[in-house]
Amino acid sequence: MRNLYELTLAQLEDLLQSWGEPTFRARQIWTWLYDRRVASFDEMTNLPKHLREKLAADNRLGDLDMAAERTSRDGTIKRLYRLHDGQLIESVLMPYDDDRRTACISTQAGCAMGCVFCATGQMGFARHLTPTEIFEQAVRFARDLELQGDRLSNVVLMGMGEPFHNYDSSVAAIRRLMSDLGIGARHITVSTVGLVPQIRRFADEGLQVKLAISLHAATDQERQKLLPVNKRWLITELLGACHYYIEKTGRRVTFEWAAIAGENDTPGQAHALGKRLSGMLCHVNIIPLNPTSGYAHSPAVMERINAFIDILESYGVPATVRVRRGIDIDAGCGQLKSAVIHASEINILSDQPAD
Known about the structure:
By secondary structure, this protein is of the alpha/beta class. About 35% of the residues lie in helices and about 20% in strands.
């Protein structure tokens, strides 16, 4: 069966023509898919019954099979999806008090980057997702929010996987988020561990999408312990690519910093980071380390984080602490790992908070 989300409007028009239907029906279907965001062909009420039956017989609305859902005490929702080949991915919806509704979506099943404190990196790499598999995660959240009289406001490519390792599919999905789902470029963020050639290529795309860099250490010696990618591209090369991105787009770069007690929360790391970033159009987003089973270290305490921020500010580098969301259901940054879902949950939808 054909997944209608994989078709462009022109392809949908060609399909309808091949069935002997007028092409204006394609625009009607398109509206149902992306403006009304319906979940079934029966809901496309301005289509004749025979066409709805034809659509249902030969086509499907998406490839994501939701295997489990959990809701955090703070309202964060985490979903486990089974793909057509049995691979599992996770997506997260984060509600904020300022009415933002942010979807955190995956670009790969697993991840090949091997960052030591990240649960997805600990599970290894399975495969790239297609543009439609990436895009559909946001569609599903947008559809459900619409039913509640709400709307999806932001999308971050920060779920499972390295978006720039799956570059073409990630960029294609970003373009569809903008054109088909109506998410503005400045409300979309792509996060990377620092694939330098792809950062430069992304700068040349002409998009106003936000860029976030997983930095986490200010010296090559320390960063290589946490992120193996630093053995391929040193921090100087990475920051050079970031400067290029800023020059090409005029956009500020965000540097993500998982604050780890006794590791990268020290005054020495703060001074080293301040010296590297001083004068750059950037912002440091500090995230107290989220716990994972494969990494034994603890999150930095707020006293150390505040001192770290004060040092950065002495260099003119702005920094804030990110609000942690969904920690009780392993939905926070670095915690997504489909393998931790118990087998008993795979075929059960649950909306109960975690214990």
